[in-house]
Fold:
Amino acid sequence: MRFKKSIPNMLTLGNLYCGFLSIGFAANGHFNNAAILIIIGMMLDSMDGRLARILKADSTLGKELDSLADIVTFGVAPSFLMYYTYFHQFGLLGLAVAGMFPLFGAFRLARFNISTNKTSQNYFIGVPITAAGGILALLTLFGNYIPNIITTVIFTMLCFLMISRIRIPSLKEVPLPKYGTIVTVFLGCLLFLIYKETYGRFPYLIYIATPIYLFYLLHLIVKKKKSS
Structure:
């Protein structure tokens, strides 16, 4: 019974470890690997809360652990990735600018955690740090096709959107994990193309993680239909 209740926390810790590994890969120049690990962290993040509810294993520990994992994987790791791929050319100024992202992200998480209202079923207040970090990872992954100025503008916008009061659709009514929906559709549509274009250079871990995650989503859809 204890093991079953610890499964969601294990996924959260896996998310945190993906963030740590992403920082290490980015520091060693393996930027594709670093970006993919952030995306895999998104997958794990989208699964832990749902599994906690399914297993009736919700806990204060799990919620606090989730926030700590998020600030590393979707705050610190993307900022390092942005620094090593682009902002490093500006020296200490570039490092300072890249460091703003986890600061805004931490403020957003703290504001959410102390909110008595939490979030509506229909929207988030401000862009979630998970989505913002995932967008930066995707921008880096396909950075060869995106001008640096566009990446810089999006980076700046995401910083302020995280702490904004803008209502962002949560997609909670969609029978899929809230953060993984867009990523899954994106990966599902482009996986074959990516495989053809980057075979031998693209990190193999994504070819393992993506089918597992898609199978998980299929299981949720089937379960949803049976219960309705």
Summary: The chain has nine helices and two strands. The mean pLDDT is 77. Residues 52 and 97 are 36 Å apart (CA to CA).
